[in-house]
Amino acid sequence: MRLFAGLTLLIVLCASAALAALLNSGVPVADWISNPGASFMLTLGENPDPVQLVRPAAQPLSAMAQLGKQIFYDTSLSSSGRVACASCHSSQHRYGPPGDSAAMFGGPEVTSQGVRAVPSLMYLSTQPNFSIGPDPGGDDEAPVPLPQLAALGHKAKRVTKTAQDTSQSAANLVPLGGLFWDGRADTLQIQAMGPLLSPYEMDGGSIARVAAKLQAAPYANGFTQLFGKLIFQQANLAVSEALFAVVRYQIEDPSFHPYSSKYDAWLEGHARLKPAEMRGYELFNDPAKGDCAACHLDQPTPDGLPPLFTDHQFEALGVPRNPQLAVNRNASYFDLGLCGPYRTDLANQPQYCGMFLTPTLRDAATRQVFFHNGVYHDLQHVLDFYDFSVTRPDKIYPRGADGQVETFNDLPKQYWANIDRTDPPFNLQVGQTPAFTHAEEQDIIAFLKTLTDGYGQPETLASASSTTAP
Ligand code: HEC
Ligand code: HEC
To answer: Could you tell me if 90 and 216 are in contact, meaning their C-beta atoms sit under 8 angstroms apart?
Structure first.
């Protein structure tokens, strides 16, 4: 009798432990019913559908890329003699900013503060060109001018983006792609000219001055070997080849796209997610919770390309103004993203004001500066923003002198209609229960940490040889 009672107790205990594990996993009940096998594997932290990811083939750097690497680290190209690409895009910090300042400093005395947070240079080699809509025409068709596309996009109905239905939103006639927070440069090469000459960055002065410095650099020999003896007689060409070399470095060096996170290993069936990471993954994909994957795509493509955690589209999230940016001391200054002030071709398209490019979340957990204006310094605050910006704005935005909460205080009111209020978790109203709890925020953060490269490697991020300065 006693044995029987003991056995019953044991069975009840086991069953409730199993049930607790099941509920603890965050796998939605509906999934348990529709696909119990896969749900069970997810509960164990395992991927029920492992895939073979296709990674860029690792090859020794070409001569061009090696030259580019030297240029990337060359501080002599700056007017101060102290700033290189790598000063802001630090190899020890996943090619992002080396600290937590909202923006980095450059200029002749390295005292001019930049106007935006430094993005990481990782995972950019497959960034699509800037366009409006999925594909504005075949290769042989005449390209439709941007203003015309913008007008079309303005009229087209926008589909709500949810993590469960990203194929539909991919067909949205919305701006996407390009480089910089406002997509204003198409290629890495055009892009690099900006910082090289910008008075807030390397402040190179003029093309002629930069070319003269290239000629005086220790790698000038490599330059003439690749481009011929006459290269330095044409300053424009020399600088443009230098920038091309920097791009080859970013494309060829595996440290810019290692795809070596725990999540990549999990996708391939080589790693098991911990319960908190698994719950975070479910919340990240649940349209009724985080819905993060609607914009930060997390599934491999059908041909096995690893997910980039961005749909490359632009969105206005209405992030709070950052008082730490010097430019923001001017109360009438606003960074409007797509419609200016740094890109000018869409200045007359007010429907895009306040929109910024969706960044990758790979390695985001290692950053100390978040969003285009660097307003946040940890993921906790970022998650609070997603949870409370519409439901409890008093937790996110400051109060003005009159005691009123200054909602969306980094965007003039006439553009508030552009702020995303349709895609979850932004589809709620003031005072409604926020989409996720504090504990769920922690789970999403645990998941974001699985996107950090270098999983299972003794040294973080690829090999030391490819990341240290020459
Ligand atoms: C003083 C800091 C600084 C220096 C030096 C610097 N950058 Fe940047 N970089 C930035 C900032 C800030 C942005 C974002 C600017 C924006 O969105 O308007 C950026 C953006 C970029 C981007 C676009 C990234 C993206 O996600 O769209 C690339 C590529 C880039 N820089 C490459 C370079 C190269 C190559 C060099 C050297 C020639 C360089 N940078 C030097 C600060 C710097
Ligand atoms: C509607 C599209 C959309 C959804 C949904 C979305 N994001 Fe974002 N995310 C963006 C855009 C756009 C930015 C850049 C905004 C800016 O800087 O103004 C961004 C920026 C971020 C950043 C900062 C990265 C950096 O390098 O500065 C993090 C972290 C982030 N998102 C995490 C999440 C998480 C977690 C969720 C789910 C709770 C989520 N996002 C849902 C579009 C989205």
So the answer is: no
